[in-house]
Amino acid sequence: MVTALGRLTLSEYLNYENGTDTLYELVNGELIPMSLGSGLHSDLAEFLHDEFTVEIKRVGLPWTAKQMTVGIQSPQRGRWDTCRIPDVTVLPIEQWQQLRSKQEAIITLNEPPPLLVVEVVSKSTKIVDYRAKRSEYTVLGIPEYWIVDPLAGKITICELIKGFYDTTEFSALDEIRSPTFKELRLTVAEEGRRQEAPTHP
Fold it and tell me: Which domains are seen in the chain, by residue range?
């Protein structure tokens, strides 16, 4: 779904307000409402955000994890801007402190890329997550990109090596191996079970 507005520049996008709580990505100058996704989509993003946060604190890393908070300006294709908002972004604390002082927390092209980004696949975003965003994140030099696909029951980790993403797929009982979080121990099946498990106060 695309809004009926004309194309916007990045500056216009950052200042856009329509009086609703709808979150938009900017894609080639067009506002694209971000799908709410399923409850599982939100649970997976929250779960990974929390796991990263715990691991960052456990190891004592100078990083932070943010869920649907940080925008990333992508390289232009033609004259129009694109700005993505990953489901989870991991970045240095110092970089976050600089971002939060801005009107909008957007990592622009002249700034260092985040350390890791996560996109959780839904039916409406599958092609974008696997193709467009992978291509954009490669060009931006993001070291690690997770494609979490509950539809296929797998996680694809893309590691940037010499300017290209090498991909490794994990499913079922495979232990996820992250180049960024080297000591993190998770399996795809475990992640699914934790989302299905009831919570108690």
Answer: 37-72+87-100+112-196 (3.90.1570.10)
